[in-house]
Specification:
Layout lengths: L2 H30 L7 H15 L1 H19 L13 H41 L3 E5 L5 E4 L1 H7 L4 H5 L10 E4 L12 H8 L3 E9 L6 E11 L5 E10 L1 H23 L2 E6 L5 E4 L1 H7 L3 H4 L4 H4 L1 E4 L9 H8 L3 E10 L5 E12 L5 E10 L1 H30 L2 E8 L5 E6 L2 H5 L4 H6 L3 H4 L6 H13 L4 E9 L5 E12 L5 E10 L1 H52 L6 H28 L9 E4 H11 L1 H7 L2 E4 L4 E4 L1 H17 L7 E9 L2 E8 L31 H11 L4 E6 L3 E9 L2
Parallel strand pairs: 19-21
Antiparallel strand pairs: 1-2, 1-6, 3-4, 4-5, 5-6, 7-8, 7-12, 9-10, 10-11, 11-12, 13-14, 13-17, 15-16, 16-17, 18-20, 21-22, 22-24, 23-24
Helix pairs in contact: 1-2, 1-3, 2-3, 2-4, 3-4, 18-19, 20-22, 22-23
Length: 754
């Protein structure tokens, strides 16, 4: 039977019953009429049953049919449809009873239908929701439950849940609170609903003995009271919040990660609500502002963060108020100052942005403040470096402008061409070509080399490069723009990259015209000087030889005159003769010393290695008479062998030792000669214990003819120390003296180790 047929049957069945029950009542009345006097009771039952089964209309129909059948078959006269006047009261009472019963049953049926419909709707709703719902009796027995409740509780079907009490032990499930502690049954919200009559809620983690994954459950229980105020049942709703809890845990973990990140970053991060009150500040924010988290939370942004201009008169905005007003981000790249709670000032820049919800409404702001002390310092240092660089560039430009030469830098281009990157302005002054001509034309430098010098200059450069000498000089001639031939010298360096590949050259190109002229003049001067020295030497020899002969004659005749006429002359005449002889003798000594001085030649023609120790022995032998007369003591350590003119060194030591013996004090002369090696030279010393001299005279004593004492006190010509100086300087050394009056003098001189 299809759905339409079933619907029609359900619709017409009550009316069929209403027709059949009066007929059955007639049959029963006729059968039991001899025994039962009140047969109308059968028709009342028929009408009641019809009303119970079909409601008001079937009950009325059954009553009408019952009245007709009752009047026709049972009320006298029988088998007539028109009732008698005496029967109307009974028929009226019967009709009222039928109508009353039909109304009652109709109300009952409608109530049951409404209740059934509500129950069906409730079941559909409860089965459709994702939460589990269960109703329990005070004894803990489930009265009603939906399928989701059975799954959450741990039963496979609803019937299994309804036919069994809730588990009193943890054989099916375990209760744990959010901290992991076991929840006792007495602590459940449903238990409190029965015992205390209050609604409750608890979030629990339920574990299952069968190995199913644990679930997070939000359990809400509410008591249902009867008319007497007693708890009739408890309705419990089980919400599976596992996904929500996992999301909450993940959100909490993310929040903790974000908190960790924000705490570790080097920028100040502050968030506010829509009123500008701070609801978060990270660790760097606490450091920069001087406010702790507890002090700053809840305060207005401007009460915690004080931003001042870096320059007087510069405008400063409140980033939070600006974002809340305009709804747009604020990015301040200018340098401002953050004034902390303690008054410390830090240069900053900052950004502020709105925080929006899923609907785009502003729910707060976030401000990021960056300490740019390092950047400000770097910019300051960079500015100083730029000024310094500009000054150095200007200085370099000034230097290059005053360098008497062409400064250049070039790189090796394609096919080995030399491309000039830089050339200073001196090129136009020296050769007449502009810097642009050099830069714009590859290999321009090679094109202006004199044709006769092209191969030789290239060969020199190639030879230097192959020998590994990347910094050197070569000379060649260039043809100037006006046709002049200019001798040049290139001081250059070969540039290489990290792999040793030649990338270019740089250096200085100088006009050496004057140097070449000076070299020619110098050669001529040297030639003239050599010729003059030879002539002077010859003159000195001739002069000394020719002058000594007249002096010898004058001295001989004066001495002869003194011997023959000594007794005939008076004292004045003898004194005059003595003066003349003494002058002639001194003249002879002076001529001999001049001859010795002139014979100290330059050059290394007579240089050879000899032992200074052996030389000193010979000098001591030469001075033995003076040493004995003065009772002098000469000491010397082990002296080295040196290379030089042995005769000149003999004269050097003899002069120094003679002076030490001559200028002695009251004590016997003591002369000490030492030598020590210092680097690439020998340092000699000749020390005495003589009369010494003042410091201001130490340089004067080496000048020819300069004397510190008169000839009567200490005889001499004043040329000896000048000869010593000439000998030392001839050998590439230097000589000096140290002296203390009354203590002695030390002569020092150095000789290079050849």
């Amino acid at each position: 039977m299809n759905r339409f047929s079933a619907t029609r049957y359900a619709h017409y069945a009550p009316y069929a019953v209403a027709i059949m029950t009066p007929l059955l009542a007639v049959v029963a009345a006729l059968l039991f009429d001899p025994f039962i006097k009140t047969t109308m009771l059968f028709f009342i039952v028929a009408a009641l049953f019809s009303a119970w089964y079909g409601g008001f209309k079937p009950g009325i129909l059954s009553g009408v049919i019952s009245i007709i059948l009752l009047n026709y078959f049972l009320i006298e006269p029988r088998f007539e449809l028109i009732p008698q006047l005496d029967d109307l009261p009974r028929i009226a009472v019967f009709s009222v009873v039928v109508i009353f019963l039909s109304i009652i049953e109709e109300s009952r049926i409608r109530t049951e239908q409404a209740l059934r419909q509500s129950r069906d709707q409730l079941r559909i709703v409860l089965e459709g929701i994702k939460d589990g719902v269960i109703a329990q009796s005070p004894a803990g027995q489930p009265i009603f439950a939906n399928e989701m409740a059975s799954k959450i509780i741990g039963y496979s079907t609803i019937d299994e849940l309804l036919t069994n009490p809730l588990p009193q032990t943890r054989d099916r499930l375990g209760f744990y609170d959010q901290n992991g502690a076991v929840v006792l049954r007495s602590e459940l919200p449903s238990t409190k609903a029965f015992l205390q009559g209050i609604a409750g809620q608890m979030v629990m983690r339920w574990t299952y003995a069968n190995g199913d994954p644990a679930r997070w459950i939000n359990l809400r229980s509410t008591p249902v009271f009867d008319d007497l105020g007693k708890v009739q049942m408890a309705i419990s709703i089980f919400s599976d919040i596992t996904e929500i809890k996992h999301a909450e845990i993940e959100l909490r973990n993310q929040h903790e990660r974000v908190q960790t990140v924000l705490a570790s970053i080097s920028k100040c991060v502050i968030s506010t609500d829509t009123e500008g009150h701070i609801d978060f500040i990270n660790r760097m924010g606490e450091i920069l502002t001087g406010w702790t988290d507890g002090q700053a939370i809840g305060k207005l942004f401007e009460d915690v963060v004080t931003i001042a201009p870096d320059k007087p008169g510069e405008a400063v905005i409140n980033p939070v108020r600006t974002v809340l007003r305009d709804g747009a981000p604020v990015n301040v790249s200018l340098v401002h100052q953050l004034v902390s709670k303690s008054g410390d000032v830090v240069p900053i820049d900052y950004t502020a942005s709105p925080i929006r919800d899923e609907f785009g409404s502003i729910m707060g702001t976030v401000t990021v403040i960056r300490d740019i002390s390092d950047r400000v310092k770097a910019e300051k240092d960079r500015t100083e470096l730029m000024f310094l660089l500009a000054a150095q560039q200007q200085r370099l430009k000034n230097i290059l402008a005053n360098i008497p030469g062409i400064v250049w830098e070039s790189t090796i281009g394609t096919e080995g061409a030399a491309n000039m990157n830089f050339v200073n302005d001196s090129v136009e002054k020296i050769l007449g070509y502009t810097p642009d001509e050099w830069i714009e034309n590859p290999n321009f430098g090679q094109t202006i080399i004199h044709p006769d010098d092209v191969e030789s200059s290239a060969a020199q450069a190639r030879e230097l490069y192959e020998s590994g000498n990347f910094s050197s000089s070569i000379q060649f001639r260039c043809i100037a723009k006006d046709g002049r031939v200019v001798p040049m010298e290139a001081l250059y360096s070969i540039l290489q990259d990290a792999d040793g590949k030649v990338t270019g050259t740089c250096g200085l190109l100088m006009d050496i015209s004057q140097r070449k002229a000076d070299e020619i003049a110098l050669k001529q001067s040297a030639l003239d000087l050599r010729r003059s020295n030879e002539q002077l030497e010859q003159f000195a020899y001739v002069a000394s030889h020719d002058l000594q002969e007249p002096l010898r004659m004058i001295t001989s005749y004066l001495q002869l005159l003194e011997r023959r006429y000594k007794d005939q002359l008076d004292a004045d005449a003898n004194e005059f003769i003595n003066y003349a002889v003494d002058g002639a003798s001194r003249m002879k000594a002076l001529i001999n010393d001049l001859l010795a001085y002139s014979r100290v030649k330059t050059g290394e023609q007579n240089f050879k290695e000899f032992s200074v120790q052996t030389l000193i022995d010979k000098v001591v032998t030469n001075l033995q008479m003076s040493i004995d007369e003065a009772c002098a003591e000469i000491t010397y350590d082990d002296l080295p062998a040196i290379k030089g003119d042995e005769a000149q060194f003999a004269q050097l030591f003899q002069n120094l030792m003679s002076n030490a013996i001559k200028f002695h004090g009251e004590d016997h002369p003591q002369v000490k000669i030492k030598a020590e090696r210092q680097g690439k030279e020998w340092k000699f010393s000749v020390r005495d214990n003589g009369i010494g001299m003042e410091t201001q005279y130490l340089d004067r004593i080496f000048v020819i003819f300069q004397r510190l004492h008169n000839k009567e006190q200490y005889p001499g010509t004043g040329i000896g120390l000048a000869i010593c100086k000439k000998v030392v300087e001839h050998h590439g050394g230097r000589i000096w003296a140290e002296s203390t009056p009354g203590t002695g003098t030390t002569f020092w001189f150095t000789i290079p180790i050849r």
